[in-house]
Amino acid sequence: MGHDVEPARGRSTTSTRRWPSSRSGDCTSDQAVVRPGAKALLTTDDGRVVMVRERRDDGSTFWTLPGGGLRPGESPVRGLHREVAEELQCDVELHGRVTRCTYRHVSRTDVVSVYDVFRGRLAGEPVPNRGEGIVEHRLVAPPTVPPGTLPPFEDVVAEFARSWPPADLIDGDGQGSRGWWVR
C-alpha cells in the first residue's frame, strides 16, 4: 500500500436533502438521498488517466473514474482503496484530494452521489472485475475521454488536462517533469 493523505477525516453518512440543479446529471428533483463516495484520478508518468467502463443493472454502460460509494463509517481514503481493489483487483497510491463533484444517478434518480476525488497512481496491474460490473479499463490521453463518460468525471479529466504538466515543474529545457498530479 502506498503513502496516503487524507486531508478530511470525514466519515460516510447518508442524508435526504433538497439538491440544486447542476450539470452533474440533471439534479432537479425535490428530494434526494445523498450518498458519499470517492473516486480516483489515477495517472501515469505521461499524463494518461485510468478510466473504467461499468455496466448498469439494465445492461447499459458508462465510463467513469475508478471508485464508488462509501460504506457507513468508512473514510474516503479507506473506501477508495476498497473500491479500486474490488473494481480493478489492485491497490493504489493516493496523494490527496483534488476536488469534489456530484452526480445524480441515471438508474436511481432519487440518489445523488457526492464524490471526493483523489489523485494517485496504480500500485499494480489492473484487471477489470466483471463481478463488480467493470467491463473494461482504459488509459486515456486527456482531454479526450471515451463517449459515454459521465459529465462530472469528464469535467475532472478536462481540468486535469488544463494543468498538465504543471507550469512550475517544467524543466529548463522545456520538458515537463513528473508533476504533482503523479508525484
> H/E element string?
EEEEEHEEEH
**Class, according to the CATH hierarchy?**
Alpha Beta
Low-confidence stretches: 1-29, 167-183
Average pLDDT rating: 80
In whole angstroms, how far apart are the ends? Answer: 15 Å
Structural account:
The strands form 2 sheets. Strands 1, 2, 5, 6 and 7 form a 5-stranded mixed sheet that branches. Strands 4-3-8 form a 3-stranded antiparallel sheet. The chain has a single domain, classed as Alpha-Beta Complex (Nucleoside Triphosphate Pyrophosphohydrolase), CATH 3.90.79. With 183 residues, it is an alpha+beta fold.
Q: Can you summarize this structure?
A:
With 183 residues, the protein is an alpha+beta fold. It has helices at 76-88, 151-162, and strands spanning 15-17, 32-42, 49-55, 61-64, 67-69, 91-104, 111-123, 134-140.
